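Ticket #4471: structure output looks truncated?

Reporter: J.K.
Steps to reproduce: submitted the chain below (122 residues) through the standard prediction queue, then opened the result file.
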Amino acid sequence: MYEHKIPKDLSCGMAVTMDIIGSKWKPCLLYNIYKGINRPGQLQAYNPKASRQVLNQQLRELEEHGIITRVVYPELPPKVEYFLTATGRSLIPLLEAMEAWGRQYATVHTDTPEMAVQSINC
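Returned output as attached by the reporter:
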């Protein structure tokens, strides 16, 4: 994981939460895995604006934090799937609240094209 030059202040719950899931793609990855999108190729297809390298890095970080588990099946070619751990499943109410809030906000603020809610995968 990237080491910050300035030590992180993880003295409050919000700071800890943001340290673990506070990146551009982690909430989407977690929500996709929760919805059954488990394979790396599927996650890439559901998050096409993210590079494979960034997705792999963020999946690795989530795995290091114990939020997801990576299962490699012994077959050729290797099959990899990601699943939420019990700790990861405890984030589901938070992710659902974020999704609902984002959709509501976007419907109220549809005056700009970038705020238009699409039926996307995240």
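Triage note (M.O.): checked the attachment and the full token line is present. Strands lie at 68-73, 79-84.
Status: closed, working as intended.
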